[in-house]
Amino acid sequence: GLGLTYKKDENFGEWYSEVVVNGEMIQYYDISGCYILRPWAMSIWEKMHDFFDAEIKKMKIQNCYFPLFVSPGVLEKEKDHIEGFAPEVAWVTKSGESDLEVPIAIRPTSETVMYPYYSKWIRGHRDLPLRLNQWCNVVRWEFSNPTPFIRSREFLWQEGHTAFATKEEADKEVLEILELYRRIYEEFLAVPVIKGKKSELEKFAGGLYTTTVEAFIPNTGRGVQGATSHCLGQNFAKMFEINFENEKGEKCMVWQNSWAYTTRTIGVMIMVHGDDKGLVLPPKVASVQVVVVPVPFKDADTKGIFDACTSVVETLKESGISAEADTRDNYSPGWKYSHWEMKGVPLRIEIGPRDLANKQVRIVRRDNSAKTDIPIDDLVVKVRETLDAIQQNLFDAAKQKKEACMTVAKTWEEFMDALNQKKLILAPWCDEEDVEKSVKERTRGEMGAVKTLCSPFDQPEMPEGLFFRHLTLLYIKLLLSRHNI
Ligand SMILES: O=C1CCCN[C@@H]1CCCn1cnc2ccccc2c1=O
Predict the structure, then answer these.
(1) Higher-confidence residue: 297 or 281?
(2) Distances 167 to 56, 125, 252, 425 between C-alpha atoms, Å
């Protein structure tokens, strides 16, 4: 039948796998950890791309394309950068029947691909800032549970790699890009995120500091890294000798950033908004915002109804709303309702004989199933209003759910209690790596150990009398949750 077998709140993992397939976003592929992105998913990727690409062009960042293949010498240039990641690197060892002289790596990220050429291109201060981005795929041969969009062995992303003469310029850009990532989540995907800084243990080892937008998946009670914007400091400049002659003729190393968001964004959106009828797409990223379904009744003016559907679609399209009429004569209206609800189309318009007679249409919201009859003359205004209301409602509902799952822990007991209730925890933090490691150890259990997510930039009030306080003068609020999906 058309419905889902699994319920979101009962079998979240199975629900998710089913909804991405029934919603026609994903086709499972015969290589584990790899998925086909069907047009219904690709159109969401394109909407985000169009926004982000236009924004970085305003920042004078240019797109480029570097090769997929990395020579081993360069990939392993810096041991501490590559050490933890080496098992994930995929290698090409043969062409046809013959072995390659030297195996070639497939890019898991492009620092080592790009920076030898940054070193060639950057000579003097006039060559700075150098700000390049590429839209591409990367491969990381992970073994932990593959999940469509969330964790796959190949995924799409954009990776920005910028070089500056001063740290101040780098610090500024890190936050400008992080704000764009917040906008992608909150303004397009209707997913609330928390901006913050990663701990020393969780940051990108090759960098100086990592900033992040953290999302929250209520069903798992876990945070999930939404996107990252790193300041690399001068670590890679040292490694790849990316130097420039400043105005005074002194030889200096550049300051660099690197930042990315990936197709994981789509998975987070599905997990947050989806329900037991299927996908729920925020209008800002829906390729079809309104589907118009004719509801013929016996032979009552069927042509009139179909003509009305076509003209409603034209009117909406002319006002910039993406609309489609489902006039297939081999499916019933009821079948069509379920089909487009499964695909998460934000708004449905039904037109039957009564609607025609009354010069009205019936609109049905996907987010709360509300039905309203609107006069055909108010069509565009009402549809636009309703789409905006759906967008806002999805965000508000997700924000409310996230906040209901967040709690402040002042003692270890409160902390453990909140963890076992699958909550996000704000706790005072001494920001010492060995403490972080020991907390991870002390919380290892069947639900997975705790990990720190970030130290939020906007710190809520710290309640008085915290027993942590006497441990250290420095404390910052930290967002913790079970290790993410
Ligand atoms: O996040 C970003 C933003 C975009 C550019 N790269 C940085 C850091 C990537 C960190 N990383 C992540 N997985 C890897 C896997 C294999 C080899 C290297 C790596 C690796 O360096």
Answers:
(1) 281
(2) 20, 14, 12, 32
DSSP letters for 435-477? HHHHHHHHT-STT--EEEEEEESSPPP--SS-TTGGG-S--EE
Question: Is residue 171 scored above 90 in pLDDT?
Answer: yes
Residue 171: both structure tokens together: 């610090």
Q: What is residue 208's DSSP assignment?
A: S
Question: Does ligand 1 lie within 6 Å of residue 155's CB atom?
Answer: no
Q: What is the pLDDT of residues 383-401, one digit of tens each?
A: 999 999 999 999 999 999 9
**Atom 9 of ligand 1, nearest CA residue:** 109
Tell whether ligand 1 has an atom less than 6 A from the beta carbon of residue 80. Answer: no
Q: Whose CA is nearest to atom 17 of ligand 1?
A: 85
Checking if the pLDDT of 482 tops 70, the result is: no
For residue 215, give both structure tokens: 């999302």
DSSP per-residue string spanning 85-148: GGGG--EEEEETTEEEEEEEEEPSSSHHHHHHHHHHH--BGGG--EEEEEEEEEE----S--BT
Output the residue whose Cα is nearest ligand 1's atom 11: 109
Using alpha carbons, list the distances in angstroms from residue 447 to 55, 92, 199, 420, 484: 40, 37, 22, 8, 11
Decide if the complex's ipTM is over 0.90. Answer: yes
Report the separation in Å between the CA atom of 261 and the middle of ligand 1, taken as the mean of its atom positions.
Answer: 12
- Give the chain's length: 485
